[in-house]
Structure of UDP-N-acetylmuramoylalanine--D-glutamate ligase:
Amino acid sequence: MRLVILGGGESGVGTAILGKKKGYEVFVSDFGKIKGNYKEILLINGISWEEEKHTEELILNAAVVMKSPGIPDKSPIVKKLKERGIPVISEIEFAAPFTKATIIGITGSNGKTTTTMLTHHLLKSAGLNVGLGGNIGKSFAWQIADNKYDSYVLELSSFQLDGIIDFKPHIAIITNISPDHLDRYEYKYENYIDSKFRITMNQTEDDYLIYDADDEAICNWFKTHTTKAKLIPFSLTKIFSEGAYIKNNKMEIKISQEEFTMDTEHIALEGKHNMKNAMAATSVAKLMQIRKATIRESLSNFQGVEHRLEKVLKIQNVQYINDSKATNVNATFFALDSMNTPTVWIVGGVDKGNDYNELMSLVREKVKAIICLGVDNKKIIDVFGNVVDMMIEVDNMNDAVRMAQRLTEKGDSVLLSPACASFDLFENYEDRGNQFKQAVKNL
């Protein structure tokens, strides 16, 4: 069986190692450059590869193709594979049949990384032998090749879910849905929503779907679709006989006749959106039979996620906050909503079809100045130009941070929450966040 892998990054190399171990003839093809450490691993494992090209005669003879999530369906090589009826799948689809572990799959437009990390923290703190993978950490396929975890917590993007056929998590979470990556979905929001719900398409009556019952797109989907999975909703405003909710500043969770309560003030994460992430993760912990005392302790000591509303430093009584992971408008909405001081907002990057008007009321209320950090800032300037007193364009992080410092007074905050992808000026959102932190430290 010939397994061809498109993309020589973490998921590609991980799949190659698992494929080789399971007896496939493996070939890795990357249209860009493959990092040195990954090349070494491929060589050590006797796996053939190519970079900076896709050689058709070495690819179109595959029995199955694993495509990295970053490669769009409209790329020429993927179109040719599909025309020939060769299955093009994602890493999770390829890897899942090779493990008997319990799989917890988490998707959503925002909050999925925090929810994934928190779920993993809850299960690991309880002594479970649990792996962390998907969009974060080590490749899922690689972990299956190397390790013997009893369960996995996977952060799943819509692109990974697009490439599944039979994959099903025992427990699925949809944190929320808001317009994102619409450039990959023919600019049709409904296509993107359907893509997220693929997480539950193979679930049975023995599986669970945990979801945000306050989310308009999710609730609308349920009006015209069904899933076989048992439903566990969570909400900030509604109360359920089965599900999770907040009542009188207490988080309450009721699942199969069991109850769990905890004062929200003891939960380490702050902000309304993080209460939702905590409800989702705690619902998993309850389904996995984790003791209440362990859950309480883990919720109170969780450290949060880097580049997500991360407090960097306070300088001259001005708080600098790194929210570089906010790559869409909805994520930035949560960030601005959690600000309770006058804010200088650093925004911009590669726009994925954003509607900034959703932020208008928050910008009017909280933002004193906007610093546009992108190659093309026209859209942001058009929307907010008349709303804030000061609007400045810069093209590098050092200028952005220095300018922000000039515009602040004691008691203000500086928030990097770009609402955009980072690929115009930075390698990725981590690079953008790290440059911000370094620039703040250099002040």
Q: What stands out?
A: Residues 344 and 404 are 6 Å apart (CA to CA).
